[in-house]
């Protein structure tokens, strides 16, 4: 397992001072869709760590020692909440609001204690999707209960359904019910047809790699095309090195039950390989053969139905 390298993930200059790094991350935050909470929270932690000389020193020491426990995203959030040197420059962009818990135990030292999850940020997104599904089920159960209660016969004043009906009119026969008699079976077919995600998924159409120039630098540009835009539950991207392989995973897409999609390498050998597949949870993964630590940038353009990976040479 490898450390989560903020410099490599966000294309940051390792030799830059804290002020320059903070300014660069402010720019990345301003360009990030506020709905992409995973990326926004990671950028905020990166800004707090690399923008403060004290926290950055702790991080760089851990990052440079592969024999120590791997640095995970959770460890980054924890480090960002610890006391630093106090020289972090003011925010150029107001940080977006997040929901992650920041732990602070007053400890003067910091050492990651958790192993790197193979899904990275997808774990939190998976919990969000599961929570949304459970909430929707709860709402449906409540509605079904109300419908059932309204269908009951209100023969007596103690009947629960009487709470939902008005008092009988003066023309009503004493002792008679103002509600219709219940039917033998209730029609809940609408419940069986209910779906939360069918209209909110996208699929990966394919990926194409070409050699070009990115911001004045020679680079390999890989465009991952999506068939349809995301609706409601927007996809997210997780990327990291595993040895000499850059792995780009796309979450929240329809291709979750497929193990491949079309790829085309037009670089003429600039990449060791370009492979399509999926991770152990079924989400599509693009594996790119480049040396570990290579500078790169991932651009999420879901409104344009694509994700772009720029690898600098």
Automatic annotation (TrEMBL):
Does the keyword Transmembrane belong to this entry? Answer: yes
Where does the chain cross the membrane?
Answer: 126-150
Taxonomic superkingdom: Bacteria
Region described as Disordered: spans on this chain: 159-184
Compositionally skewed regions (Low complexity) per UniProt: 162-183
Which keywords label this protein? Membrane, Transmembrane, Transmembrane helix
Name recorded for this polypeptide: J domain-containing protein
């Amino acid at each position: 397992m490898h450390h989560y390298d903020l410099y490599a993930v966000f294309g940051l200059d390792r030799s830059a001072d804290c002020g320059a790094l903070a300014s660069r991350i402010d720019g990345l935050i301003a360009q990030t869709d506020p709905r992409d909470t995973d990326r926004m929270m990671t950028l905020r932690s990166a800004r707090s760590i690399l923008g403060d000389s004290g926290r950055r020193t702790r991080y760089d020491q851990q990052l440079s020692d592969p024999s120590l426990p791997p640095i995970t995203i959770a460890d980054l959030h924890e480090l960002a909440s610890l006391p630093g040197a106090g020289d972090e420059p003011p925010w150029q962009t107001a940080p977006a609001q997040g929901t992650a818990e920041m732990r602070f135990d007053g400890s003067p030292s910091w050492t990651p204690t958790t192993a790197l999850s193979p899904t990275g940020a997808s774990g939190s997104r998976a919990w969000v999707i599961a929570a949304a599904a459970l909430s929707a089920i709860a709402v449906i159960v409540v509605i079904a209960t109300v419908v059932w209660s309204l269908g009951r016969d209100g023969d007596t004043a103690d009947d629960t359904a009487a709470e939902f009906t008005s008092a009988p009119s003066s023309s009503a026969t004493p002792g008679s019910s103002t509600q219709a008699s219940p039917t033998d079976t209730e029609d809940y077919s609408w419940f069986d047809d209910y779906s939360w995600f069918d209209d909110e998924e996208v699929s990966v159409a394919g990926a194409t790699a070409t050699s070009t120039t990115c911001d004045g630098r020679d680079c390999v540009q890989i465009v991952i095309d999506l068939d349809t835009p995301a609706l409601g539950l927007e996809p997210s991207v997780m990327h990291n090195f595993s040895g000499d392989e850059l792995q780009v995973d796309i979450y929240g897409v329809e291709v979750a039950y497929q193990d491949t999609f079309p790829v085309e390498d037009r670089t003429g050998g600039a990449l060791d390989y370009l492979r399509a597949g999926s991770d152990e949870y079924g989400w599509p993964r693009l594996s790119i053969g480049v040396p570990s630590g290579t500078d790169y940038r991932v651009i999420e353009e879901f409104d344009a139905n694509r994700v772009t990976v720029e690898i600098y040479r």
